[in-house]
């Protein structure tokens, strides 16, 4: 059964906690390293630090975030795959690392299914589709009509190849049957800067980043990419309800370790991570980043990640998005 990423979903994986805790009573006996494939301050890093801090507080050992940026997150993922499977090297990554980048490379550094043991989907965050005020549209349907009338003339900024802003746009163009020109940047921030200056037409960006500009009238928010509207912008519809039925995409974050990590450790980490995400301060901090909690079971996480790998491999193939 596919895991649906909606704001109301919170799978209580900790229902299995008593057995899991009994099977791994001495873990952790030393600090745990949590690898992140991007620089400090980015969305993945922030999520990892919020969860790692609470895990450390609950379990009495430090969960230390170790940033190893490069190759769209592949460097940290490869280090995770090759680490001893003892529960002391974990990783937090998004679908960029687990489902998109491997499909974009002819020789990826790891196999996302074979090399990792998934623990839980921590949470997810929708993008917001925003346009510069000079673009004469106020809905997704009108944007699609304009793009069809002006093929290859409208541009969208991204945070780089394989990032969620890029793949949100790729999925959008594929489903709408339109021709948009992707303009890659080294991160979302410079893309938003050029969008504000009118150098590009539109962008799919994280809600907390662009919502202040929408409220100030500097950008026009057309839709959010998730299954439902977001609490911080309830008047902005989803892409699906605003002109492109069936469209859905969120940035999701999962916690995982090396493939051979013992099942009892995976079960304990799942239970403890879900418990950590139930803390009011953790909920508040994640919500401030535009992230809603998922907290899936291990089995649900595995099914979801497999489905996402299939989904994005199809998008990469049909849109010709390649990194090498």
Detailed description of the structure:
The protein is an alpha/beta fold. It has two domains: 13-124 and 251-319, 3-Layer(aba) Sandwich (D-Maltodextrin-Binding Protein, domain 2), CATH 3.40.190; 126-242, D-Maltodextrin-Binding Protein, domain 2 (3-Layer(aba) Sandwich), CATH 3.40.190. The protein has helices at 17-23, 43-59, 74-82, 95-104, 140-149, 164-176, 188-196, 207-215, 263-277, 280-288, 298-319; strands at residues 32-36, 63-67, 89-94, 116-131, 155-158, 181-184, 202-206, 220-224, 250-258, 292-293. Strand 5, helix 6 (164-176) and strand 6 (181-184) form a beta-alpha-beta unit. Helix 6 (164-176) packs across helix 11 (298-319). The radius of gyration is 19 Å and the shape is globular. The protein starts with 16 loop residues before the first helix and ends in a 5-residue tail after the last helix. 50% of the residues are buried. Mean pLDDT is 90; it is low at 6-23.
Low-confidence stretches: 6-23
Kindly report the CATH topology of the largest domain.
Answer: D-Maltodextrin-Binding Protein, domain 2
Kindly name the structural category.
alpha/beta
The major beta sheet can be summarized as: 10 strands, mixed
Q: What is the count of DSSP helices, taking H or I runs of 4+ residues?
A: 11
Number of DSSP strand runs: 10
Shape: globular
Could you spell the SSE succession in H and E letters? Answer: HEHEHEHEHEHEHEHEEHHEH
Which percent range fits the helix content?
40-55%
Strand content: 15-25%
How large, in whole angstroms, is the Cα Rg? 19 Å
Q: How many distinct domains?
A: 2
CATH superfamily of the largest domain: Bordetella uptake gene, domain 1
Average pLDDT, all residues: 90
Please identify the top-level CATH class of the largest domain.
Answer: Alpha Beta
Distance between the termini: 34 Å
Identify the CATH architecture of the largest domain: 3-Layer(aba) Sandwich
């Amino acid at each position: 059964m596919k895991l649906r990423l909606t704001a109301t979903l919170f799978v209580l994986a900790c229902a299995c906690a008593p057995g899991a805790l009994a099977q791994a009573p001495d873990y952790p006996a030393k600090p745990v390293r949590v690898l992140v494939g991007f620089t400090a301050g980015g969305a993945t890093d922030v999520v990892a630090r919020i969860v790692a801090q609470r895990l450390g507080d609950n379990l009495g050992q430090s969960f230390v975030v170790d940033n190893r940026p490069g190759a769209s997150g592949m460097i940290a993922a490869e280090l995770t795959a090759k680490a001893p499977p003892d529960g002391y090297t974990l990783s937090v990554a998004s679908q960029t690392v687990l489902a998109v980048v491997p499909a974009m490379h002819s020789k990826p550094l790891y196999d996302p299914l074979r090399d990792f043991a998934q623990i839980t989907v921590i949470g997810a965050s929708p993008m917001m589709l925003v346009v510069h005020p000079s673009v004469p549209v106020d809905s997704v349907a009108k944007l699609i009509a304009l793009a069809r009338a002006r093929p290859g003339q409208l541009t969208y900024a991204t945070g780089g190849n394989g990032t969620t802003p890029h793949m949100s746009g790729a999925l959008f163009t594929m489903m709408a049957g339109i021709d948009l020109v992707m303009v890659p940047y080294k991160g979302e921030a410079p893309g938003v800067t050029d969008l504000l200056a009118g150098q590009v037409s539109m962008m799919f960006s994280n809600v907390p980043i662009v919502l202040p500009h929408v409220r100030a009238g500097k950008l026009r928010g057309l839709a959010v990419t998730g299954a439902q509207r977001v609490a911080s912008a309830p008047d902005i519809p989803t892409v699906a309800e605003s002109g492109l039925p069936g469209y859905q995409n969120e940035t999701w974050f999962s916690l995982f370790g090396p493939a051979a990590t013992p099942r009892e450790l995976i079960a304990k980490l799942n239970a403890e991570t879900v418990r950590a995400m139930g803390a009011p301060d953790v909920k508040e901090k994640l919500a401030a980043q535009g992230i809603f909690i998922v907290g899936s079971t291990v089995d649900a996480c595995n099914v979801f990640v497999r489905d996402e790998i299939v989904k994005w491999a199809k998008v990469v193939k049909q849109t010709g998005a390649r990194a090498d």
